[in-house]
Amino acid sequence: MGYYDSSSPDGATSSAASKNIVSKRNRRKKLNERLFALRVVVPNIIKMDKASIIKDVIDYIQELHEQESRIQAEMMELETGKLKKIPGFGGIQD
Length: 94
What we know:
Elements: H1 9-41, H2 50-85
GO molecular function: DNA-binding transcription factor activity; protein dimerization activity; sequence-specific DNA binding
Subcellular location: Nucleus
Protein name: BHLH domain-containing protein
């Protein structure tokens, strides 16, 4: 009676369940590793729960996009200013 047969339906179910448990555990481990990596590279993460980390990362990325836009606008302004000082580009008359 105590004999285990992996080919029986119960054995297959048990095996599938343990594979499922292992894959869920691995998925959680990978997720936690990725969240830890985000906490390392993103400044000002205070709370350690997953939702807060993700929110802080989104806020940081939006802040970086805004900073990029400001820098690009500054660069355009500087380039335009340089062109106006070059003779033949309409800024200064020869």
